[in-house]
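Aim 2, interim progress. The first record below pairs a target sequence with its structure tokens.
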Amino acid sequence: MKKPAKAAPAGHAHDHEHCVEDAIAAAEKLCAAKDLRFTPLRRRVLELVWSSHKPVGAYALLDSLRNEDLGSAPPTVYRALDFLIENGLIHRIERMNAFVGCSHPGEAHRGFFLICAECGNAQEIEGDGVSDTIVAAASSRGFTAREMTLEVTGVCSDCKSG
């Protein structure tokens, strides 16, 4: 199975349909392997999160789901988001209180993101060196790092050249 497309600096002509298809396939495989229910609402929320590389807020998801017959009450959508986060299918961008698809579902990794201040796209990046540096610095102070997310804002190459 192909990995979901990375949240690359998405050119404005980028076709997100492949991202969505790959994310759904990865979620189905992960849920089957862990004997988890991938309900229609969880599937739809994942599709909506992956429909763009821009982080999407819970209220925008609720608005999108309002006309669909999937149970779009806030607690139901938040439970779907929690399920997707807990199972490594999406990440929460804290500074934006929004969600973005995980480009490495089912793999243990840290969430490092480049967020364009101009277009709003978020790109997940590999950060083993950064992670190792933070863990070592924390350890030298007697601190055990468990989880970390790094959010870097700036301007993507598309916006810089456009």
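The second target in this work package is listed in the same format:
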Amino acid sequence: MKYRQLGNSALSISEIRLGSWLTYGGGVEQQNAQACIHKAFEVGINFIDTANVYAQGGAESFLGEVLQGTERESYVLATKVCFSHVSH
């Protein structure tokens, strides 16, 4: 796996990230989703992407559960916020 420094930070992230948009917290059975996370770590992926609206919050909840017990310094978890109900 190749890694890049994230901006001016000390973070080194994998060039390939693991996304959770249509998968975790609803689209994929939990056992398969957990296996996917474990395989990503096994091949060196340390950058995980999610957002508050993926599976109506289910992706973030799933990742919180499956990452328990994983050394926090071993991965970068990037999340985004969507305000889809904001009035203009």
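The chain has a mean pLDDT of 91. This observation will shape the mutagenesis plan for the next reporting period.
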